[in-house]
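Q: A reviewer asked whether we had any structural model of the full assembly, not just the individual parts. We don't, so I'm hoping you can provide one. Inputs are below.
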Amino acid sequence: MRCDKLWTNARIATLAAPGLGVIEDGVIAARGGRIAHVGRAATAPEIDAAETIDCAGRWITPGLIDCHTHLIHGGDRAREFEMRLEGASYEEIARAGGGILSSMKATRAASEDDLVGSALPRLDALTAEGATTVEVKSGYGLSTEAELRMLRAARRLGEARPVRIVTSFLGAHALPPEYVGNTDGYVAMLCDTMLPAVAAEGLADAVDAFCEGIGFSPDQVDRLFTAAAAHGLPVKLHAEQLSNQHGAALAARHRALSADHLEYLDADGVAAMAGAGTVATLLPGAYYFMRETRQPPVAALRAAGVPIALATDCNPGTAPLTSLLLVMNMAATLFRLTVDECLAGVTRNAAMALGIGGQTGTIAVGKSCDLAIWNIERPAELVYRIGFNPLHARVWRGQ
Ligand code: DI6
Ligand code: FE
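A: Here is a predicted structure for the entire assembly that you could use as a starting point for your response.
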């Protein structure tokens, strides 16, 4: 067979079979940006490659996927972090005009170029650790014009760098000041004006919301999700982060791609997610940064066969984090995920959480040739080390 590129002498964690789907002494061939062959060298067909890369025994995993970020935002909240260290709570800061609303002000004041420019270093930090797909949410604009600007900036990230950007419209992130006392009015505007404008420009790949006592109620989210379906857009939800609003079950009723956070998820929510094939996206960086103590029900998710994804939640308020390697270590240390679960969480299951499991997330014939090549002796090292980056090379769409 003919191909563009051939990687030889590799140890491969394909994530395409139970466990890590390991192939010792493996080869991967790419043609037209897709994987044309993967398997053991001993049983490989004759391959005529334009370029051959000897991996010298290095490990190859699927390119990593960060399936939940708020990468685009104006400003930062380092001062609020200091206030929290001095004893103020997240809620107190929010009530004093800080929190999501302070990021909203900075985001509204930023041009599209500003938003792209400030997000690129964060994106570069993720890709420097092998990320080949990154989800980016809106949600700090909270007006039609500013939400569109955020999503256009997000799309531009994917033109500025060799990485797949998947966008989520998170207009239902917080109540903007213009609608104080009128949350239902804001939700109606989301459904009738903002979402149609976003959909008309093709700026969102999914619709997300923050279902919480301090966010939007299940009823309000239900209205938004019904409108999303009318536009043919899949949904996902920030659910059960600070309290149990039964948001995950609501998300499952709407066949959500994922429900995210889930510290307060109950047994009914787990069962609903299992029944709907909704991925559980855990965000240990936010749990750590907010010094949460309530753990997501990992054992129940496992027992029910709910796929678990992991992501940074990169955002200025609760997770100023741009390392999927650190996320894996946190998931193992704080939530007791296994090494295999951590790796599946930032590859195969993260792709499912974005609805692109058929395109990427495992090393299998026909998928996009998205790879991370590592200077490690065993996969556990990717989860074990803290603050050390063993990436040797990153391949996106065969390049
Ligand atoms: N949950 C979170 O933890 C973040 N957003 C959300 O819906 C917080 C975002 C922020 O504080 O800026
Ligand atoms: Fe989030």
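A: Points you may want to mention in the reply: Residues 99-100, 103, 173, 210, 238, 241, 286, 315-318 surround DI6 (ligand 1) (CB under 6 Å). The mean pLDDT is 97.
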